[in-house]
Amino acid sequence: MEEARGLDGVSDKLQAAVTAAVRPQRLRDLLHGTWLGHPLHPVLVQVPVGAFVSTAILDLLPGARKAATTLLATGTAAAVPALAAGWVDWSQLTPERRRVGLVHAGANAVALGLYTASLLARLSGRTARGKALGFAGLTVAGLGAYLGGHLAYAQAAGTNQAAPDLARLPAEWTEVCSLASVPERRTVVRLVGDVPVLIYRIGDRVSALVERCGHETGPLGEGEVTGEGWNACVVCPWHGSTFRLSDGAVVHGPAANNQPMIPVRVVAGRIEIRQP
Ligand code: FES
Q1: CA of 167 to the centre of ligand 1 (A)
Q2: Ligand 1 neighbourhood includes 28 CB (under 6 angstroms)
């Protein structure tokens, strides 16, 4: 599925539609989970998944018709914000991940349709039909969940792509360059082993961050620096994630995690870094 280029036509059109539909930066940050420090979509899906699985269990028990219908209505309503957050995250993924994500979303859309039909059937008194539609929904949602797991655990969508670089830095303090070779209020990139490190300085104070963007490894060293002093931020040139240079805090998504900071010190005019 990751290689299925035939999905790209639909995928590209949907990506453009999602981007056009969710324009305000605040809304995008809200749905990405930038304010939370973790992606929001996996948090939101817990409610519909829990409600739908519980509905299936109650459907197997006698005398639980009302409780099952209540849970099903809860799950169906809770699926809407989960779906919105998922689409916004999906629109900023690489093509391979978007292909899998498209089928994941398609399966979940079919499941939601089945659950909605199940709810309507139950509300009109056709309980047996409602139960059958509910079990069909659970089966299709299971396929969608499997693909969601593949996206998260095999393709690492939504994980902090910068974190592995920290482990590849030297454990001991290691010289990077001279303080004088780093221009003030601009970012420079220096390689430590094969790990690119982003360095920013004002006077004698220096900060160092992993240079590969935590969202999809974009080159932060090529990003624009905005703002002033220690409130200055670097904007990723790939999808616009914005990180504060003093502490790595994510200010705007699509990244939902902070950019990892690297311990740094200045000794006799030389900048040194080490693993946290
Ligand atoms: S790689 Fe996507 S925002 Fe940096």
Answers
A1: 21
A2: no
